[in-house]
């Protein structure tokens, strides 16, 4: 049905507020705007990059009609606490996968988890994602220590020059995009945008390529001063 259809069928209408993530997936906020409702941005949890349940609770007002949470990078959002907030305030709670997620076979997920576990045990130059049950590692997202975006971007360029196909997963907070702009500042969202980098864990990677990736990250990370 999609976000628009789900919200519309639940009675979300013009003038309502819908709590949405500020980190990634602008199409969620765009769906809210399409209905004439107002997207209200909530901050993310520093470990999962999904909606922070406490931030969701703080964002609720008498005009709030719904909350849309997104499972981020293959890690499930904390839907238990978010649904409790929804029940307390009588809100619709919608959980969505990121585009392209949710259609991976079990064997591929197993292999990605093996690669993630290998990197968890080898990487020292970056902060690795906390290992949690249910994580499918659609993306393996690390934090680069140092001085935020300048060091992260320099780190990414250096990795690419060594043949590592890394990418910045989210370029800017949703609330800074032209059509979705709001005068807010969410610290964990800002920090995540500035520090995160997605490293490859695709199943085609050989063990030697993983070793080369870890060696490159550790050598570069040693040049930076941790910011956490």
Automatic annotation (TrEMBL):
Cited SUPFAM superfamilies: PLP-dependent transferases
KW Cytoplasm (keyword) present: no
Gene3D superfamilies, alphabetized: Aspartate Aminotransferase, domain 1, Type I PLP-dependent aspartate aminotransferase-like (Major domain)
Domain of life: Bacteria
Transmembrane segments: none
EC number: 2.6.1.100
Keyword list, A-Z: Aminotransferase, Pyridoxal phosphate, Transferase
Family membership noted in the UniProt record: Belongs to the DegT/DnrJ/EryC1 family. L-glutamine:2-deoxy-scyllo-inosose/scyllo-inosose aminotransferase subfamily.
PANTHER family named among the record's database cross-references: DTDP-4-AMINO-4,6-DIDEOXYGALACTOSE TRANSAMINASE, TRANSAMINASE
Protein name, entry field: L-glutamine:2-deoxy-scyllo-inosose aminotransferase
Species this chain originates from: Streptomyces rimosus subsp. rimosus
Gene label: btrR1
């Amino acid at each position: 049905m999609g976000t628009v259809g789900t919200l519309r069928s639940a009675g979300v209408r013009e003038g309502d507020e819908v709590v949405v993530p500020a980190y990634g997936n602008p199409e969620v906020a765009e769906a809210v705007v399409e209905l004439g409702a107002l997207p209200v941005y909530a901050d993310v949890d520093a470990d999962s990059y999904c909606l922070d349940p406490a931030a969701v609770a703080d964002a609720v007002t008498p005009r709030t009609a719904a909350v849309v949470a997104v499972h981020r990078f293959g890690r499930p959002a904390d839907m238990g606490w978010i649904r409790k907030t929804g029940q307390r305030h009588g809100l619709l709670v919608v959980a969505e996968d990121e585009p392209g997620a949710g259609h991976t076979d079990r064997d591929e997920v197993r292999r990605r988890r093996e690669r993630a576990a290998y990197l968890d045990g080898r990487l020292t130059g970056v902060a690795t994602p906390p290992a949690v049950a249910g994580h499918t590692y659609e993306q393996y997202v690390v934090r680069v220590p140092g001085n935020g975006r300048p060091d992260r971007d320099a780190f990414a360029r250096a990795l690419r020059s060594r043949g590592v196909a890394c990418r910045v997963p989210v370029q800017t907070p949703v609330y800074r995009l032209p059509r979705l702009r709001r005068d807010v500042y969410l610290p964990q969202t800002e920090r995540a945008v500035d520090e995160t980098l997605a490293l490859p864990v695709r199943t085609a990677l050989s063990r030697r390529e993983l070793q080369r990736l870890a060696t490159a990250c550790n050598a570069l990370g040693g040049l930076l001063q941790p910011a956490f």
